[in-house]
Design brief:
Elements (H helix, E strand, L loop, with lengths): L1 E5 L3 H12 L3 E5 L12 E3 L3 H7 L2 E4 L6 H11 L4 E4 L7 H6 L6 E7 L12 E6 L8 H10 L2 E4 L2 H26 L3 H6 L3 H7 L9 H8 L2 H17 L7 H16 L2
Parallel strand pairs: 1-2, 1-4, 2-3, 4-5, 5-6, 7-8
Antiparallel strand pairs: 6-7
Length: about 260
């Protein structure tokens, strides 16, 4: 297997390192020559076309805004192989993948971990098929098995509704807490107990790249769960026995029963 990775930022570099450790030959490209420069074992090229010429499977790990142009370049190149992206939400990606020539086996991947994850653990990746091209997922099952990662297949609509809750809502809460606390964060931590310190973990999302944050917070499925949270917090305001944790627990349980049971 010859794996190409377009985009050697956080996740692209993680996948490249994992692939090299798994004995896979990796060909990488990033428009920023400094990204992924320290990855041993990755063969670096100076163009997307160079990656295509050397790879039979390609993963695009770029910011969402770059994806349409890259897919257009691949579609017009005549390349044939297996192609996937790793975007957080899929509703805007699937129509782009549907337009690829049939000689390109296309699917969308979602690693359920971040670039700071250790390289030696077994993490999970969701495989999201293109409707009508479900057979195209097979090369990615083989790749993920080779990488030592677990996987499951999920429809893109179901995927996005769940991601709006488990990713979008924590991002929204984290950014709201950041704005609310401002300069009072240090004092709040000094006087806080375990409940607030658990919520404080959500502030880690504030340091993520701005483009990623905007794409997550602007997604319709994220906005759906934000509105649900606002409604439930409004109802909870008059009840002393129902706090933020209980509200979030109810929303998670509802999502589970609707989309996962």
């Amino acid at each position: 297997m010859r794996l190409g990775i377009i985009g050697l930022g956080g996740m692209g570099s993680w996948l490249a390192l994992r692939a090299v450790k798994s004995g896979i030959t990796v060909y990488g490209y990033d428009k920023d020559p400094g990204k992924g420069a320290g990855i041993d074992g990755v063969r670096r090229g100076d163009s997307i076309n160079w990656v295509l010429e050397n790879s039979d499977t390609v993963i695009i790990a770029t910011p969402p805004a770059a994806l349409p142009g890259i897919l257009d370049e691949i579609a017009s190149s005549g390349w044939r192989g297996s192609l996937a992206d790793i975007s957080t939400f899929k509703k805007r990606v699937i129509p782009l993948l549907e337009r690829l020539p049939r000689g390109v086996r296309a699917a969308s991947l979602h690693p359920l971990f971040g670039p700071r994850a250790g390289l030696d653990r077994r993490y999970k990746v969701l495989i999201v098929p293109v409707p009508g091209r479900e057979g195209d997922v097979e090369p990615f099952r083989i790749l993920l098995d080779r990488l030592g990662l677990s996987w499951s297949v999920m429809d893109y609509r179901r995927h996005d509704r769940i991601m709006g809750l488990v990713i979008g809502l924590p991002y929204a809460i984290g950014h709201a807490l950041s704005r609310i606390l401002g300069e009072d964060l240090e004092s709040a931590l000094e006087a806080s107990g375990t409940t607030f310190k658990s919520l404080y973990l959500l502030l880690s999302t504030v340091s993520d790249p701005e483009e990623l944050v905007e794409s997550i917070l602007g997604d319709p499925d994220t906005r759906y769960w934000i509105e649900r949270l606002r409604e439930e917090l409004g109802r909870a305001a008059g009840r002393r026995d129902l706090g933020l944790y209980q509200v979030l627990y109810c929303l998670v349980e509802e999502c589970y029963s609707r989309h996962l049971s």
